């Protein structure tokens, strides 16, 4: 989608700190990290949010999250997987993305 920040990152038009890429997904470091490890996993195809995405895409993204958690060394210590959705979910970029947050102990409940 024209004017979608994450579509422009997925196409390479806007640079990112890439962690992983294949034909379906891109993973890159968040520009404003909230933890020592803060990686975003996005599908290259545009979906506004998880509400619009097909289960195959979401499942594939999940498999990449697990692979990256191992490669980033946070699988044993644990991590938080966040999919902010819509207004109340404080989703600021309207392109489906999963946040992988790790490397420190998380707070619960979230604010
Ligand atoms: P959300 O609030 O769940 O929509 O998350 C959007 C995330 O995208 C935020 O954590 C931002 O810091 C991050 N972000 C925004 N622009 C960029 C960018 N150019 N490169 C990497 N991360 C970004």
Provide a descriptive summary of the structure in words.
- It is a single chain.
- With 111 residues, this protein is of the alpha+beta class.
- It has one domain: HIT family, subunit A, CATH 3.30.428.
- 21% of the residues lie in helices and 23% in strands.
- It has two helices and five strands; from the N terminus they run H-E-E-E-H-E-E.
- It has helices at 5-10, 55-71, and strands at 18-21, 25-29, 37-43, 79-82, 98-102.
- It has a five-stranded antiparallel sheet with strand order 1-2-3-5-4, with helices on one face.
- Strand 2 (25-29) and strand 3 form a beta hairpin.
- The longest helix is centred in the middle third of the chain and has 17 residues, at 55-71.
- It is globular, with a radius of gyration of 13 Å.
- The protein starts with a helix and ends in a 9-residue tail after the last strand.
- The model has no long low-confidence stretch (mean pLDDT 97).
- The structure holds adenosine monophosphate.
- Residues 5, 16, 28, 30-32, 40, 84, 90-93 line the site of adenosine monophosphate (AMP).
- Adenosine monophosphate binds at residues 5, 16, 28, 30-32, 40, 84, 90-93.
The residue ranges in which pLDDT falls below 50 over 5 or more consecutive positions are: none
**Helix content, binned percent:** 10-25%
CATH superfamily, by name, is HIT-like
- The radius of gyration over CA amounts to 13 Å
Q: What is the name of the CATH architecture?
A: 2-Layer Sandwich
Determine the strand fraction and express it as a percent band: 15-25%
**CATH level 1 class label:** Alpha Beta
Q: Give the integer mean of the pLDDT values.
A: 97
Query: What's the overall geometry?
Result: globular
The hetero compounds bound to this protein are: adenosine monophosphate
Tally of helical segments: 2
**Widest sheet, order of strands:** 1-2-3-5-4
**Total count of strands:** 5
Characterize the quaternary organization of these chains: single chain
Distance between the termini: 31 Å
**Largest sheet entry:** 5 strands, antiparallel
How many domains comprise the coordinates?
1
Q: Which class do the helix and strand fractions yield?
A: alpha+beta
CATH topology type: HIT family, subunit A
Q: How are helices and strands ordered from N to C? A: HEEEHEE
